[in-house]
Amino acid sequence: MLTTYLSLISLFISCFILMMGNGLVNVLLPVKMELENLNTNTIGLVLSLFYVGMLLGAIYSKYLISRAGHVRVFAGCVALAAVSILISSFDSDPLLWGAMRVVIGFCNACAFTAMESWLSDSSNKATRGKILALYNAVALSGLFVGQFLLNLASPNDSTLFVVAGVLLCLAIIPITLGKSSGPKVEEVVPMSIFSLIAKSPLAVVCCVTGGMIYAALFNMLPMFAKHYQIVDFQLTLYMATAIFGAFALQFPVGYLSDKYDRRSVIFFLLLLSAGAGIIATLVAPLQYEWPLFVATSLTTGIIACLYPLSISEAFDKLRQNEMVAAMGSMILAFSLGGVIGPYSAALVMGFFGNAALFYFLAIVQVMLAGFVLYRMQARDALPIDKQESFVMQSSTGAAMVDLDPRTEYVPVQAAFSHDAQIAINIAQTDQSAAVNMARAIAINQPERAVEMARALASVKGIDVLSLYEVMREALPYRIMEIATAMVATAPNLAYELIQKLAITHPEQVVSVAAEIGHSFPELRVAMAKVAVESAPQSAVQVAEYYAQVIVDEREALRPADEEADTSEQDLVDIAAQLWESAPDHALDVAVTMAEAVPEAAVSLAGDLAENIMSEDAESEAEASPEYVVRSDSQNAEDVEAALELVQRFTDAVPDSAMDVAVAVVEAIPEAAAMIASEVASNIVDEEPEQAISESAQAQQDILDHDAAVDLVQRLIEASPDNALDVAVAVVEALPESAALIASEVASNIIDEEPGQAKSESAQAQQAILDHDAAVDLVLRLTEASPDNALEVAIAVVEEVPESAAMVASEVATSIMEGQLDTESSNAGLKVADRSELADIHQSAMQTDAAIDLVQKLTQAAPDNALDVALAVVEAVPDSAGIIAGEVINNLTQDTSVDAQINKLERAHQRAINTETAIDLVQRFSEAAPDNVIDVAAAAVDVVPESASLFVDSISEGDESKEGEWMSRLDEAPRDLNEVEESQNDVKDS
Length: 989
What we know:
This protein is mainly alpha-helical. 75% of the residues lie in helices and 0% in strands. It starts with a helix and ends with a helix. It is elongated, with a radius of gyration of 46 Å. It contains 45 helices and no strands.
């Protein structure tokens, strides 16, 4: 770093002397015009013209430098500025002085551009910020010292103009005597001012306003001071204090800008500056010197910080590659404000008096603060850690575009030597001769081998690979440097060049390829591939390297660049090349990269799963190209590979486990059930580290159930053919979620609408398939979670009501077969050695379960209530009587309490009730013939007036003639009550 500073000492000396001359001129001209009794408006207009020249210089300076070079432009422009200052001493004509101000402004802009591009060429990515800070310090120091030169002579004569001209001429000497000729200047097309306003309106408005009040303050401040009799040495001290404030306040303002929301900082600084300016105006008539100086220093310091603050605000909203172009627009905006400022202030001071300067500045700053407040409401603030850092920027001249450490760094390529340029010229006509020349120079002067290789590689149409071979034979021990330089010049041949390098230096290929990939992001995929091809065992190492590179880049990524960020896809592309070149390490590579960039885990897992399937398909096609059938063993291998993939990714990136599972199932549908089981078990395993309350546990259970349902939903979408297997696998891991999952899967059965209208027979066939699927779902989930069988059945029937009877039959059969976890099984009663009391107890429990089943399924599918009841009665005949009474009571309407209907309507309803009851009794009698009396008795209990009709219906009149049925029905309600009472006694015991 010290060496860099020493190499730039001549430039810094020239800059200091130049700014001394400018500092003297800036205070001399307004004082001189005041002494010449020019009116305030004229003074303001003349001073504003300086920024017109600055604006023109900012536009055309780089064009001049590209034509004439840095030294010539700097020397010529500074000499022209000296001439302009000397001419200004001949006469005080405002037109002459105005024209000279334009010329001086133009010359200064060109001189600043030459110095700054020169500094940029001498800096690198690490030193740009330090060099910029030193440059600003030198420039402001020159301005500070220049104020005191006003005391060398009276402003009334031409002595001070001569001193200023001499200083500018002296500034030429150090640079012209230096060794460097300056770098090549790249023309930068500025961003459209309207585009910049669209991206950051506050930055543009703040920049224009900052230029306006900065130019107004520093140009009209001598007139304000003269109004309060601050003259001679006191004037120079006053102006020096203002410049010192512009330098010193950049440090605390920069700290606050980086520590807090930048817009809030600008808002409060503007109010503080306005207040300080008003205080300066109030204390000036009282001749309170130090309060005046401090207040002035404070307001000038804050105003000087508006320009770097506006640049930082703009950079918050810009992409990295837009910054340099935006800086050009910011220069134009600031210069435009500089043109407006002095003349606007002069108009106000001419109307209200010179004391109105700070009032004018305060009003403008308060208006800007109002706009800042509006923008704070219109757009959310960036997080503090995402804001661009504040960088000290001087407002005295052109902005330091290339030196700003926030802009994208583009290293400057050194110009080719004379011999290298000759070799390039020869290569245009005779490539062989040029290569031989390069070989000869490389052998005699090995230190020039890299330059010669880079020079020839830049020639269009040259055989770079042959050049590489020649240089390798000539200097094998420097071939690494040569190859890297040639890749930088001909990146399209990078892959072939590194392949050749792998033959002679295989042990160094990985490091060279990694370094090239780091320097050239567009070559990373190719470099990763060639590195692993030459050393397959290094696949994981290469993956770790590139993953870390991408992580570092993502951490340094600016908010405005995030939209265009392709790092995730780059990572996936690199991984694909690595596992293609080293398939045995594919999973390790993918997991390594997923751990580094979790956001890429899903893409990596999905691509790797597809890679597994595509490799299998290719191998099968090669084995039997005409007819390919995947064997069970191959399917099993794929499923096992998919499961291992999910397990490894789940361990590495647990937060993305479900997304990874879905991505893998989409590629390998056959693995859906096993993957579902694996992910569901992880949901269960995620127990809290310490004991939690019952309410917290209940909340956790709800979250687990929601996660289980979400898992089933997503895996069913990914693999619809395996929906039932997925559901069963998840229910086995999370039995309590059985009902929710049953509802989800059953709804998918119904949602699978046909693509086009079907005939009635086809629709009937589809309905049968739906019913079968619903019953199969209930059976499978009941086996997986027997304690939740009833809830599963209800959930399925709610989604597929037409399947209610079949579902009821299956669940009721389970009751009879003892497959449900009832209270009797909890009591430890065994079928083989039950007592009579136990049998009665078991029968009562089965009846209760059957009734509960009918009631709940009837609520879920009321239109299928009778079918549900019959199905349950067929499975649990002992429950026939109670179920019959329940169903008849639901199906018939009680007319005794309805006073709104007449006798005829009541009789009609009774007839309907009787007919309904008879139909039910007949069907129940067929389903449970041994329980026909209980059924009939239950019906009579509900519809007593139909007793004789029940007898006729059941016995077809034979037994009624003998009077047996009627007498048994008369006794049946009493008998039925006795049965119920006995069942209750058993339960109580």
